[in-house]
């Protein structure tokens, strides 16, 4: 409502126009003078209101209203105007609108007074959610204006947007922005926010991205970087999305945990697991990212792909107890087996089986068998492979390892006999 209050200053200045000189060059109808006797009472009411005595000011206006028959159109208009502002100060917006309507109904009055009051009425109607009324007042305002003005175009766009007339709203907001850009001025940030919202409602993501690109360039705010990255993702432009989030992260613009996790996921999906793990680990260390199952699982997978075995093991050991099933223990068992930590791999595989819910439980028996084989625990290995054969998915692999283990066992026996 800043523009509305600026109108108040303009209208108070009009009080100094005590003659028909108040009429501007476009107005051919002669406007009567504002007489000293009326002016002094209006000024007194204003002074009381400025000093916090609104009720006193209204009482003075009521006294002036008792002399309506002797007042001219300009004096009546200023009386209604003062009523309007005082009711506005009391946040009685409907009453304020009613009196401002009476201002523009008076004939003749100075054109600046009529125009400013019409615009104030449009602003107040917007505040009240009377969007059709906003458009009506703006039409009357525009009828006496030489060319479109940005403030009116934006207000019209806001009303149309709120009325869900998005196609129509796009025209005035685009025009207002073009006026500014043609003058090499920077468009108001709120104008671009409105333009972006309209394109979003019209389901034009490419245009939303275009507006956000401009907002990033002009205002460089963290939320615009993140929003633009999101739009690139929606458009399937993952490389641009990653570049935006990566730059925003380096600039310290990613403040929300969800945005940092999103960056980590993009790194992971774009085969940059080490950076994914770095973002997550740094966030968890600082407390910015919660050490919950979802985030720990992504961190573990990132460390695994980055071949950072020690860190992957530590993370999986932290995450596995949080899961409802044994899948993370199963993953831990595989990592430990590959790293030749056979006893630890056996423990992890047994924990996976004990917790249950495995998609391929047979693989854990195979893992136990392989670890036992490496430890030369042949009989135990054969038992594990026999158990693995009970599962269709692992039966063939288990049978092959079983044969290999039997061969290794026989060879070990032969060597033992030769050395005895």
UniProtKB/TrEMBL annotation:
Listed A to Z, the keywords are:
Signal, TPR repeat
Spans of repeat TPR:
77-110
Q: Which domain of life is it from?
A: Bacteria
Question: Where does the secretion signal sit in this chain?
Answer: 1-21
Asked if the keyword Signal belongs to this entry, the reply reads: yes
InterPro entries to which the protein is assigned, alphabetical? TPR-like_helical_dom_sf, TPR_rpt
An example of a Pfam family matching this protein is TPR_16
Among SMART domains, the record links this protein to: TPR (SM00028)
Listed GO biological process terms: cell division
Q: What is this protein called?
A: Tetratricopeptide repeat protein
């Amino acid at each position: 409502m800043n523009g509305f209050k600026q109108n108040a200053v303009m209208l108070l200045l009009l009080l100094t126009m005590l003659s028909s000189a108040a009429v501007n060059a476009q107005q051919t109808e002669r406007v009567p003078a504002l007489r000293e006797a009326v002016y002094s009472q209006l000024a007194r009411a204003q002074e009381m209101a400025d000093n916090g005595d609104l009720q006193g000011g209204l009482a003075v206006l009521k006294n002036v209203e008792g002399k309506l028959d002797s007042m001219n159109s300009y004096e009546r208009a200023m009386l209604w105007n003062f009523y309007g502002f005082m009711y506005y100060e009391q946040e009685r917006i409907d009453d304020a609108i009613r009196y401002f309507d009476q201002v523009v109904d008076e004939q003749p009055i100075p054109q600046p007074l009529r125009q400013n009051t019409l615009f104030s009425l449009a602003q107040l109607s917007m505040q009240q959610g009377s969007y059709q009324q906003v458009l009506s007042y703006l039409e009357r305002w525009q009828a006496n204006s030489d060319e479109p003005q940005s403030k009116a175009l934006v207000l019209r766009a806001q009303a149309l947007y709120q009325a869900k007339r998005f196609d129509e709203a796009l025209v005035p907001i685009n025009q207002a922005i073009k006026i500014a850009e043609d003058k090499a001025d920077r468009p108001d940030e709120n104008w671009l926010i409105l333009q972006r919202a309209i394109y979003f409602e019209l389901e034009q993501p490419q245009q939303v991205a275009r507006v956000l690109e401009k907002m990033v360039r002009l205002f460089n705010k963290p939320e615009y970087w993140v929003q633009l990255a999101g739009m690139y993702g929606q458009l399937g432009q993952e490389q641009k999305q990653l570049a935006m989030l990566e730059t925003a992260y380096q600039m310290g613009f990613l403040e929300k945990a969800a945005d940092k996790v999103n960056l980590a996921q993009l790194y992971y999906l774009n085969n940059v697991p080490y950076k994914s793990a770095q973002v997550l680990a740094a966030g968890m260390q600082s407390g910015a990212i919660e050490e919950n199952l979802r985030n720990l699982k992504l961190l573990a997978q990132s460390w695994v792909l980055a071949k950072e075995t020690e860190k992957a093991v530590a993370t999986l050991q932290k995450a596995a107890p949080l899961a409802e099933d044994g899948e993370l223990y199963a993953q831990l068992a595989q990592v430990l087996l590959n790293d030749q930590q056979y006893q630890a791999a056996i423990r992890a595989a047994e924990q996976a089986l004990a917790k249950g819910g495995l998609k391929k439980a047979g693989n854990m028996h195979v893992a136990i068998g392989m670890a036992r084989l490496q430890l030369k625990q042949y009989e135990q290995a054969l038992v594990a492979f026999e158990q693995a054969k009970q599962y269709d998915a692992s039966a063939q692999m288990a049978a092959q390892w079983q044969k290999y283990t039997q061969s290794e066992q026989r060879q070990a026996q032969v060597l033992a006999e030769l050395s005895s």
